[in-house]
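Our consortium's second objective concerns turning raw sequence data into structural hypotheses that experimental partners can test. To show how far this objective has progressed, the report includes one record in full. It was chosen at random from the queue rather than selected for favorable results. The single chain below, 825 residues long, was entered without modification.
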Amino acid sequence: MKLQTAILLAALALAACSDGGNSNRDGGGDTLQPASSEASLTYYGHTRFLIDSRCATCHREGGDAPFSLSTYGEVAAKHSAMTYSLESRRMPPAGFSALSETERDLLLRWLESGAPRGEPGVQPGTPYTYFAHTKSIIDTRCATCHAPGELAPFSLTDYDSVYELRAAVEQQVDSGAMPPWPPTNHYVPLRHNRSLSGEEKAILKSWIAGGAPRGNPDEYVPPGDETVTVEFDATLPVNAAFTPTRRPDQYRCLMIDWPFDETVFVDAVNLLPDVRAQVHHGFASVVNPEDVALYDAADGADGNPGFDCLGGVSPPGARVRPRLLTVWAPGNLPNVFPEGTGMRIEPGSKIALQLHYNTLNVEPRPDRSSIQLRFVDSVEREGFTAFFQDLAWIPPGGMPIPAGDPAVTFEYTTSLALPIVVSGGLELGIPPEGPISMHTAFLHQHQLGSATSIELIKADGTEVMLVEIRDWDFDWQEDYVFEEEVTLYPGDRLRLTCTFDNTAANQQFVNGEQLEPRYVEFGEGTLDEMCVNYFFVTAPSQERIDEPQTFPPTVAFRQPQYMQQFHAGDYVPIELLVNAFRLQEPGTGHAQHGHESSAGSADHSHQSGHYHIYLDSEDDSADHLTNWDRSTFYRLPDDIPAGEHTLRVSLRDDQHEAVGVESRVTFMVLPGDIPGGTGESLIDVNLWQRRPIEEDAWEAHRPEEINCPDNAWYEEDGALEVQTGYCNYLSLVQPSQVPVYSGESLNLTLWHGPLRLEVPAEAHVALYIGGEVLWEADIEIPNPGGIYDISLPVARDIPAGTEINYHLHNHGFNTWTLLALDVER
């Protein structure tokens, strides 16, 4: 893992700039004169924030880089070195977050124009100060890792440090990179959530934009104490200290002999790193007596304590699944199992610690980490580690991931009772026909993973997302703890989904060289892949037995956390995170599957319906958008005033009655016209016609049997709607409405809802103009839904009347919407 070094991947854009190439400018540098027509670009007006957030984090006094870029004078003194590094693309080095072409071009144009200084702008006001408002947020969310002796590369424990790095802090908060929290928020609540709330983000951004005022130290209010106090019965160190032998990352399994002669139940555990500055994260697992010999044989085989174990807590070549006891990452609290539960450990067992050492910022040192344990003689509900996966993936050929494929998805849906495998061969002690409770979920893939999720599908059909990670990172694995135990009853099922990216850009680096894509299958090795979910399970509590668990519906906008900006008439892209609520067209079902419901109904487990979206209104009778797709667009009125505005989403039952679940998103409307010109439409939604099959260009995509009645595609609110549950293949044509000239761009706006099929498949969508591909995409099914709002450059003149061809096939059960194809003059 690279826990807390992730900020470096975004901030070290010029971290290894050469010391050479100094110009003759003095340290003040304020006499630089513009040398070209790019004089409008200035340090204070355009490039300072980029340099502060992408360079000065390390190029600062006392930083990791060899010189400082914290002030204009320092930047000006490195004018030549920066130009060379940018033009030669030496920065950032391989494996680090790259500058975009726009960012690189902006910096080069500014440097080539003489790096004008400009005038410092007037700071906007802010009601917040460091001591009164932001220190408590930073102490809680950042300084647990960004502190002396911790793994993160610099300290954020005092005002001066935070002030110096404020631009980088804002960039990381804006991007969502820090603080790290991979799961999508809003679904089933999880404990120890490290993500910033919307209010916390707004306070930090306002404070930084307002000049980051210091304030009065007497006004500091310490954050609430989240410390979990546990009196542990034993502290067990690894058998021998280990010094990392590979840099910057090494995964090492170290053994702990079990010193007790009687069976005990562990009800609280904590992994205690020794050298915290180099321990990125760790797993503690119980090795049952019958597997100890395999671990003993691997321990020390290479002359050092333990053995390397990147793929899992298992000896090389052995397919052993020890029982996961706890996971530790910086900021984690001790793991206290639910009251009355615990994990059995038999005499003759051993503990294996898998530790990820990261020595990017420190010299390797001997480490003797340990675990702390609290014991009880017996428990009301014994806990087990169970894993959930498709066993058919394990044999050769069972989980093929072809080289170069950007999105290979595997999905497994079944009940938990039959395929459950309990690590170490212990018996569950739970009747197979009875309910079972899950307390944690630990999703696991390797380096090629790009997304994963675990869902609960209730017997009545309600789908509940338990944990979803849309941007998988092998270095951010964690045991996610449900705030309340999640209970499965007879008829309930689980759905595990994993997606892999096996393209060249997503390959590992070995000895500084990025590997070439290769065919990959399921396996325990470093270069193999996995798709598995581990649970800590028990028999259900008496409360869950007496009163079956229900999940209230939830909804939230999935939008960037920064303030979005639009112009009047723009389309606002919307993706809704809806949980435990079925979206369906009004009039096609009942909110309670045939039962009457009301807004105040306590039983939300069967809810279904649609939603209303309101603009700047709390009045339910106001004009609104009615929809039942997770992905859509909201068109802003042409006369909407500039300033902040709010969209409100409200879930509705089949009778349009509110179910009491709402969410809001705020955005900014900018004054003036839309940049880029008129936005003339290239298409008319009413002119689409079917292309005869014999003239269709996509014979290779055509299914053996085409089913697509005329009423499966139609105009809806100015857009082309295709009901994909009824139409498996469609090719439409119309003449272009206006000319397009070389050098102009087309803006395509298209979206689809969640795509589901019984078996994994692939959708194909394409736009042709004059017989040439304008844009096409292959989309893996199952798919949670997506929005395409993209700009397409045009390299030739396209006269009005040129044939436009729109094609869809094999696209699952949902709706596709083609909203716009506009010319950007």
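The partners drew two points from this record. DSSP finds eleven helices and 41 strands in the chain. Residues 43-54 form the longest helix (12 residues). Both points have been shared with the crystallography group to help prioritize constructs.
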